[in-house]
Task: structure prediction
Amino acid sequence: MSIDGHASGNRHDKATILRFRPAMRLLHWAHTAAFSLLLGSGLTLYFLPKAHTIIVGPYRLIPLLHGLLGALSTVLLLGVVLLGWPRGIGDDIKKALAWDRKDLARLLVLPMLFPQLRERLQPQGKYASAQKVNVLLTIAFAGGLAVTGSVLLAQMLSRNALPIDLVGHSLDWHDLLAFAAALVLAAHVYFAAIHPGTRASLRGMITGRVSAEWAKKHYGRWAARQDKQSPKAKLPPQGG
Amino acid sequence: MGLLHERMERRRFLRLLGAGVGLAIAACSPLPFSDRFRINTVERAVPRFDPATWELVVDGLVERPLRLSYHELLGLPSASQVSDFRCVEGWRVGRVRWEGVRLETLMRIVKPLPEAKYVTLHSAGSTYGNESYIESLALSEATLPDSLLAYHMQGKPLPPKHGAPLRMVVAQMFGYKSAKWVTRIEFSAAEVTGYWEKRGWATDAYISKGPRRKMGPSQATGLEGFDEY
Result:
């Protein structure tokens, strides 16, 4: 871990800190791409009856493509998780799944709405409570959608070899999880790209680095730990 | 110690999460929004229905072929039933009230020949491959106590997307056997391969995997009751 920066501008403003390693960013964006395609094709199937009219061989084309894309995405994402586990994904997921009392308190008092309480609950670690909720829900939704989607795909490919009650429950849960995941995604995009207090974090997921000042303000405990672990880290020289 | 504390918290949290998800799954049948008719037809467009010109043709291996106008169809003795509707893709709609005509009523008029063992239902409209949707049923299937040629659904004339003005309802079988927009019923000695059966889906589309031919109303899937008028 290191802190570095650009050669010009205000010394502290331009210093950056590594927030997400490449493996974590790959997982994030691969999941984003897969979920966007699957959500798009899934909503089309749910709301547009015409999407069911194209038949190829024994199958409806768009449901088949949706199912195969889901299966392929699941395999690829699992591959990224396994290969990237020692390269930062493991650390990040462990941190995101570690809860303490302050995390729960932050969720309960809604610091977004009560800024005076926010100060008392600072500093926080690498992930804010809401981000931890997002990670948990993302894992739960991805797992649930993969399992229920596999049942639906198997029913289609086998032309009705599975118990119909299992297929029915899987379809119900698949739909419910997809809509819930879409809502969580909307909230995630809002906080990552629009909300003034949090949108700087998007840069961390794109370039891997965030402003050291911003990290200190929002994730003080984590930023301090990064400082300690990087004794050689230096802020950039002033001026150009 | 801090790390250990964090791990304990995580384990406890994950346990609670697992228990919560397990409880949710156990209590899931059926979900409140799941009772929804989906229109997954293969026809390019919903066939148009004009009550003044529409006709039902009943022919094939019968003594007296028949052509019925919509109003003549409505004038025949009617029957109603409340039954579940289930698709092989998994979705189901419970307690659908259907009203229409039993095939036996038409059979009394057209008098099928002794060699007639099957009926083929021809649908209006066509698919993207310019293929007509047909479905074939054994007479024993088409005359099950909960099989009906329906023109009303939930107390109202059948909506266009549900097969107006006439559709087959075979409550004991998956939905692909319940052809919509029926305009012709043809009696035959041999089974004609239906649209989905040509593509490898089962001719035997019973929802229940148990004994079939002897299944009566009390064993029918989701069947609530019958009325004959």
Remarks:
- The first helix of chain B runs from residue 2 to 26.
- The two ends of chain B are 79 Å apart (CA to CA).
- The helical segments of chain B are 2-26, 70-75, 103-110, 139-142.
- DSSP finds four helices and eleven strands in chain B.
